[in-house]
Design brief:
Blueprint (H helix, E strand, L loop, with lengths): L1 H11 L4 H19 L6 H15 L4 E7 L4 E7 L17 H5 L4 E3 L4 H4 L18 E9 L2 E10 L7 H58 L6 H25 L9 E4 H9 L8 E4 L5 E4 L1 H17 L17 E8 L5 E7 L6 H4 L16 H11 L3 E6 L3 E6 L10
């Protein structure tokens, strides 16, 4: 009779198919909870999901250890009996070598010959008579690095099944992903705050003295020769453009604002008014129509493309110039490729784009003239934010082509 009671008790400690189905539902709910959590809710949501899993799996403890400076610290603990949990070096965990190679480590509380089929791989059985809990330890892995260990423990006799251990591993993966995602989110927030501080410095500490310089420059415009005034004016204009571009790159939030239907020609003409190159010419080859875009950002695209043409344009005698080419001729017009995609082109009669920089022309800091190399990087960023594409080739000068997506394609005015 006593042996029969023992056999019944052992069967009660094994996870059945109904138990696995219930735990699977719990994990699905836990996954939805963890995937939607905010940064300030991560600790609470992890603790809540650990409690939910622990109660449904009839466990006594779940401990989430995360890598600290000298040991694995118990960062999240579900322990209804209030037992203290101390930090542990990795080598104090059962079969630490297997954990370090991202394998589960399973330790039942009953001899395996009495248990029948179980999670055989990674089993470490307790010696008969040892008063130790039955445990499952699963590694927490992020980017192929061990960042912690999730421990499942019960003081009651327990035989772990493969299906049960697989579900615990899934729960560990969910927690590892949540922690890693939150760490990346906090790092992004930190960098964003640094960019905002940088924006404040640029906006105040640089723009204010530049405004003073610009004001004095206007006062002496009629008192100095044109050959003296124009280089100073171009320098101030270039500095203003550089500040605007830096602020654009450091801008927090979306690259583009509200989208509306706008006239491409009107935006291009407005942008041309901001380019200080009195001897340069702009020709609109044909009616381009309207496009759905952020008008301010589209104007910035044109401004940067126009300034790029001026910086790499030609002087009136045909010689290529490194910066401020006063006689460059710029043309914009509609384009349609063979596949029916619509867009626009911005072409100039300058020296074109050299083959060695064409592949990296839209990378930040790339320039073949004495400029910041930011302007075309911003063009690429704005174009991409609209869902468009930009490309460049040579045809009697540099030709920039912007292809619109179907939903934003230009329509007749």
């Amino acid at each position: 009779m006593e042996r029969l009671v023992d056999a019944v008790e052992l069967r009660r400690t094994r996870f059945g198919s109904d138990d696995a189905d219930r735990l699977r539902e719990v994990l699905l709910d836990s996954g939805s909870t963890l995937m939607s959590t905010r940064s300030d809710e991560v600790d609470t949501k992890i603790s809540w999901t650990m409690e939910n899993v622990g109660e449904h799996a009839e466990l006594d403890r779940i401990v989430c250890y995360l890598q600290g400076e000298e040991a694995l610290d118990p960062a999240h603990v579900w322990c209804p009996d209030g037992r203290d949990v101390a930090p542990r070096p990795l080598d104090e965990f059962p079969d630490a070598e297997r954990l370090s190679t991202f394998e589960n480590v399973v330790r039942p509380s009953v001899p395996p010959e009495s248990a029948g089929p179980s999670a055989a791989e990674g089993d470490v059985s307790a010696e008969a008579g040892d008063d130790v809990p039955a445990t499952v330890h699963v590694p927490l892995v992020v980017d192929w690095e061990l960042v912690g260990v999730l421990a499942f423990e019960t003081d009651a006799p327990r035989t772990w099944t493969d299906e049960e251990v697989d579900l615990y591993r899934t729960f560990g993966d969910l927690i590892a992903y949540t922690i890693a995602r939150n760490d990346r989110r906090l790092e992004l927030r930190r960098r964003t705050e640094q960019l905002e501080q940088f924006s404040s410095v640029v906006s105040h500490d640089l723009r204010n003295p530049l405004n003073v310089l610009s004001g004095y420059l206007e006062m002496v415009e009629g008192e100095v020769s044109e050959s003296t005034y124009e280089p100073m004016d171009r320098a101030v204009t270039r500095m203003e453009s550089l500040i605007d571009n830096l602020l654009m790159l450091a801008k927090r939030g979306e690259t583009i604002g509200e989208i509306e239907s706008i006239s491409v020609t009107s935006v291009a003409e407005e942008a041309w008014q901001t380019v200080r190159a009195p001897d340069a010419t702009l020709t609109i080859a044909d009616e381009i129509g309207r496009v759905h875009a952020d008008p301010n950002r589209l104007r910035q695209v044109f401004e940067n493309l126009f300034r790029n043409s001026v910086e790499h344009g030609r002087s009136r005698d045909g010689a290529a110039v490194d910066h401020g080419g006063p006689g460059v001729a710029i043309e914009i017009g509609p384009r349609t490729d063979g596949a029916g995609d619509e867009g626009i082109y911005v072409a100039d009669d300058g020296p074109g784009v050299s083959a060695d920089v064409r592949g990296s022309l839209f990378d930040s800091g790339v320039s073949t003239a004495d400029s910041s190399g930011i302007g075309l990087a911003i063009v690429d960023r704005i174009v991409e934010a609209h869902g468009w594409k930009v490309d460049v080739h040579n045809d009697g000068g540099a030709v920039f082509e912007i292809s619109f997506e179907a939903e934003t394609a230009a329509t007749p005015a």
